[in-house]
Specification:
11 strands; 115 residues
Length: 115
């Protein structure tokens, strides 16, 4: 059974940094990419950052230059380094793995950035 478990969220002040981690357990065939999405209250879930199986990355315009996605294949873990956090980054952050067969999601971790 595949499980994605996120950690690292919390309450921080604007300008601070956080690192989110997502540990993937279970076997997933044909991974195309791993990513982080966020969902703020009353808004749709949207892509924050994604890393493909060959290491290519893409980011939402709002986080370019501040967030960095990375992956440790040996640890089956994907990270999101979040710097210079802003109140508008406040959201639940979800880890995602998309494969040839299915999409997998974690349970989400709350990130709250105060003024």
């Amino acid at each position: 059974q595949v499980q994605l478990v996120e950690s690292g969220g919390g309450l921080v002040q604007a300008g601070a940094s956080l690192t989110l981690s997502c540990v993937v357990s279970g076997s997933i065939f044909g991974i195309k990419g791993m990513g982080w999405y966020c969902q703020a209250p009353g808004k749709q879930r949207e892509l924050v950052a994604r890393i493909t199986s060959d290491g290519s990355t893409n980011y939402a315009d709002s986080v370019k230059g501040r967030f960095t996605i990375s992956r440790d294949k040996a640890k089956n873990t994907v990270y999101l380094q979040m710097n210079s956090l802003k109140p508008e980054d406040t959201a639940v952050y979800y880890c995602n793995v998309d494969s040839s067969w299915s999409d997998y999601w974690g349970q989400g971790t709350q990130v709250t950035v105060s003024q």
